[in-house]
């Protein structure tokens, strides 16, 4: 088998001018689904098994290309007994290529070398995952039973990872190498190459997604011409995830990439970036699997607010729009994010959203789920939030006071009762006169509600007594229905007559 691979290499070197057009695509090998970005061709005839140290400096780049061509052979790793010698040869060759790139002694990469390296990476890395591979963590937990069952599942690992890892390392070192000219490399690391890299974030193997994240960081930093396209492509992945499938394994890693991208945004923020915050990051709070990427999402949102504090009120309005009323775990996450935002918000922005925000916090205080109620009540322990409430207590205390009193009277959890009592004491110390006024108003409203309740009960009792003393016969019911129909007919007839009279007068005038 080894001789067959080596015999496929031509004996004479081919000049760089004879390279095929990289835009031409050829069919992929049947065993793996690979990229069609780069045509399959052998670029040199130098013996690929010669070590770099034994080759003259003038021939090292040709030897580099030859070794890359050898590594384009793809093997089946599902069966360890198949081609063990050839697999080991490929692994050693990949390690040699990695050492050559990282040594710093490599000459400046020529265009044929860049072409050959991108081709080797595309053949080995780009593949289509089987359908069962996409039953991923973000599509799990459709119901309670499924969620409990899948929480203990471990991600499946690609048996070819020992080779894939080295290929990823080669690509990472190549992109980061100072010997690569971005103006030349952008012909091969193009839009198609980037899109297929993004498709690999579907992998369930966290090790592979980590490598892809590092490579995409490097590509974004080195190829400035591709930055708008990368941002747009990642946004499209988020759009499909939020509004179509809610199925993707790499949302957390893509958000980590965007977190570092946001830190480099210049001020004032472009409209494109504001739209990304409102149409992508805020709706990402909607999916059920929010907990998988919540930490990375919060970081991105906080970076936007740090860049422009005026965005804080817009973010809170978005969170209130997607508030998870029926999901207690997500409510706790939302309250945690609200707390982080309030720590950085200005007084002006806070006053814009304090009424709807504390109405929602009041609902959380009375939640029967003790973790939600505790998280809402613990907001008063934050010094920044305490100061915001203190400066606006005339508006906030009347909103939350009924929730505090209802908790004191009805809540089942002792910890929530203790926190509620503590918050009441804090509000009393903050403004005792306002607290007493709210308490008096609360008692008045409760008396009014009791009076209305008693009034409704008496009205229903009178109706029940009247119905039991004078039962309505079928004939009486028919007469009532007929009379109601006749009155409706006469009313509609009169309305139509009035409309016709109005139209006639309008036409005559």
Feature tags:
67% helix, mainly alpha, 509 residues
Describe it for me?
The chain has helices spanning 2-7, 57-70, 84-102, 111-125, 144-150, 161-176, 182-185, 191-199, 206-222, 227-245, 251-263, 271-281, 290-307, 312-321, 328-344, 347-365, 370-377, 383-391, 393-410, 414-430, 432-469, 474-508. With 509 residues, the protein is an all-alpha fold. Helix 16 (347-365) runs parallel beside helix 19 (393-410). The longest helix has 38 residues, at 432-469. The chain is elongated and about 110 Å long.
Q: Would you report the number of β strands? A: 0
Integer-rounded radius of gyration: 35 Å
Percent helix among the residues? 55-70%
Count of alpha and pi helical runs:
22
How much of the polypeptide forms β-strand, as a percent range? under 5%
Shape: elongated
Give the overall average pLDDT.
82
Order of helices and strands: HHHHHHHHHHHHHHHHHHHHHH
Largest sheet: none
**Structural class by secondary-structure content:** mainly alpha
Low-confidence spans: pLDDT under 50, at least 5 residues?
8-46, 140-152
Gap between N and C termini? 101 Å
Function: The B regulatory subunit might modulate substrate selectivity and catalytic activity, and also might direct the localization of the catalytic enzyme to a particular subcellular compartment.
Pfam family, one: B56
Region (Disordered): 1-36
Protein name: Serine/threonine protein phosphatase 2A regulatory subunit
Structure summarized in a few sentences:
The protein is mostly helical.
List the helices and strands and how they pair.
Blueprint lengths: L1 H6 L49 H14 L13 H19 L8 H15 L18 H7 L10 H16 L5 H4 L5 H9 L6 H17 L4 H19 L5 H13 L7 H11 L8 H18 L4 H10 L6 H17 L2 H19 L4 H8 L5 H9 L1 H18 L3 H17 L1 H38 L4 H35 L1
Helix pairs in contact: 2-3, 2-4, 3-6, 4-6, 6-9, 8-10, 9-11, 11-13, 13-15, 14-16, 15-17, 16-17, 16-19, 17-20, 18-19, 19-20, 19-21, 20-21
GO molecular function: protein phosphatase activator activity
Pfam families: B56
Protein name: Serine/threonine protein phosphatase 2A regulatory subunit
